[in-house]
């Protein structure tokens, strides 16, 4: 879900072909795409799929390099119900417990 904006983060592009739809595709793509590093004009490195239409950040691909976390990537890639169940539980917990110590960020309306 979502995309990066170069003027906000130095990275560019969506994580999935459907960036406005919450699915488990993100996890399947991490496992099944041949990712190629690309240095952005900002100097930051991101990873592109062969068609250069989607991207992953180094922190995304770190999830498949760590054995304990890769287990969850594989689970969510093959079982969308489990992903949605776990996501729902985590989101409900966030909403009910709230957050503390966050500071408001300025709103930017000039995203390309």
Put the structure in a nutshell.
The protein is α+β, with helices and mostly antiparallel strands and 112 residues long. The chain is 45% helix and 12% strand.
Main features:
single chain; 112 residues; 3-stranded antiparallel beta sheet
Q: What does this entry look like structurally?
A:
The chain has 112 residues and is α+β, with helices and mostly antiparallel strands. It contains 5 helices and 5 strands. It has helices at 6-9, 25-32, 58-65, 67-78, 80-97; strands at residues 3-4, 13-14, 36-39, 45-48, 55-56. The strands form 2 sheets. A 3-stranded antiparallel sheet has the order 3-4-5. A two-stranded antiparallel ribbon has the order 1-2. A hairpin with a 5-residue loop joins β3 (36-39) and β4. The longest helix has 18 residues, at 80-97. The mean pLDDT is 92.
Residue share in helix: 40-55%
What's the assembly state of these chains?
Answer: single chain
Sheet with the most strands: spatial strand order: 3-4-5
On the 0 to 100 scale, the average pLDDT is 92
Please count the helical segments.
5
Strand content: 5-15%
Order of helices and strands: EHEHEEEHHH
Please state the CA-atom Rg, rounded to the nearest Å.
16 Å
Going by helix content, strand content and strand pairing, the class is: alpha+beta
Question: Which helices and strands, and how do they pair?
Answer:
Layout: E1 3-4, H1 6-9, E2 13-14, H2 25-32, E3 36-39, E4 45-48, E5 55-56, H3 58-65, H4 67-78, H5 80-97
Antiparallel strand pairs: 1-2, 3-4, 4-5
């Amino acid at each position: 879900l979502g995309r990066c904006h170069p003027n906000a983060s130095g990275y560019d592009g969506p994580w999935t072909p459907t960036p406005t739809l919450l699915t488990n595709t993100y996890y399947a793509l991490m496992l099944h795409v041949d990712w190629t590093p690309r240095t952005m004009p900002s100097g930051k490195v991101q990873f592109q799929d062969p068609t250069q239409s989607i991207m992953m950040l180094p922190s995304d691909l770190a999830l498949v390099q760590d054995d304990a976390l890769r287990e969850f990537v594989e689970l969510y890639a093959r079982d969308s119900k489990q992903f949605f169940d776990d996501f729902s539980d985590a989101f409900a917990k966030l909403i009910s417990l709230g957050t503390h110590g966050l500071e408001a960020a300025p709103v930017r309306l000039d995203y390309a």
